[in-house]
Amino acid sequence: MRPLVFLSLFILCFAAQAQSWPSKPVRIIVAYPPGGGIDVMGRQIAEKLQGMWGQPVVVENRPGANTIVATDAVAKSTPDGYTVLMTTDATFSINPHLYAKLPFDTERDFTPVTMLVLLQQLLVAHPSLPANSLQELIKLAKAKPGSINYASYGSGSQPHLAGEMLKNKAGIDLVHVPYKGISLAVPAVIAGEVQLTFAGIATSTAPLKSGRIKALAIGGAKRSPLFPEVPTFTELGFPEVETHAWFGLFLPAGSPKEAVGRIHSDVKKILDEPEFRQKQLIDRGYDVVGSSPQEFSSYIKKDFENRGRAVKISGAKAE
């Protein structure tokens, strides 16, 4: 009996250790500055996790170098489950195609935990543009090649890739005008500096409702419930024009499976809270996901391939 007793005690002890995570503060490193959508979501989730775990969950913003600063910091951190990266598709789907060399390997050095949300962007235009649909825009661009411009927030950004893919598939000539930040593109359209841009629902809602811009199309497989009158690129015959972005959580490769599973399951509970899901996510234009680590990993592989094609077509290079 003694060996069995010892074995039972060992199993109970091991189970207790597996259940003990987290036993100290957890850091969520956000790859973007304070105040943006991903930062706000990160802080909301951190506050809820802190209550669930009984441990401090601290959000640390490390913007810079198109998310590379934060990503490198997490890649080089101890893989114990206590340092989490919160970033977007730019890090894993786009940057590896833009940069000849990165200080980390996005596939080798990270464990995907969960995709939080998916965001689809609208193609929006200044009201003076004599086109009220994507079809009219294409017709106008073909009649006056090179006379219509669109804003992005840099070479290789989501709007740039979407704009170049639209040009390629529609056979039109639009002029790319890169701005220095994500917050400048929509104001540039409102001011009439440029005629078009691709922008998220949260950024676009107020100027759309006030008539300062108009929407021609939206990305994704289905229309947004917030703008049901705006058709998708897919239904208009351009499924290759992907305008999406996503927010996700990652741990360094080699992190304990217990930490990966616990973060995913508890974050999924938060995303599924009816009030939080509706008011903080759906009403702001986010498609709620909460995918498993395996589902997220499979999605990233496909997204990486699709964005690679878009980068090649665009000719984008790291700035």
Protein architecture, described:
The protein has 319 residues and is of the alpha/beta class. It folds into two domains: 24-118 and 245-314, Bordetella uptake gene, domain 1 (D-Maltodextrin-Binding Protein, domain 2, 3-Layer(aba) Sandwich); 121-218, 3-Layer(aba) Sandwich (D-Maltodextrin-Binding Protein, domain 2), CATH 3.40.190. 43% of the residues lie in helices and 19% in strands. It is built from eleven helices and eleven strands. It has helices at 2-19, 37-53, 68-75, 89-98, 134-143, 158-170, 185-190, 201-209, 257-272, 274-281, 293-314; strands at 26-30, 57-61, 83-88, 110-119, 121-125, 148-152, 174-178, 196-200, 214-218, 245-252, 286-288. The strands form two sheets. A six-stranded mixed beta sheet has the order 2-1-3-10-4-11, sandwiched between helices. A five-stranded mixed beta sheet has the order 7-6-8-5-9, with helices on both faces. Helix 6 (158-170) links the parallel strand 6 (148-152) and strand 7. The longest helix is centred in the last third of the chain and has 22 residues, at 293-314. The protein is globular.
What keyword list fits this structure?
alpha/beta; single chain; 11 helices; 6-stranded mixed sheet; 5-stranded mixed sheet; D-Maltodextrin-Binding Protein, domain 2; 319 residues
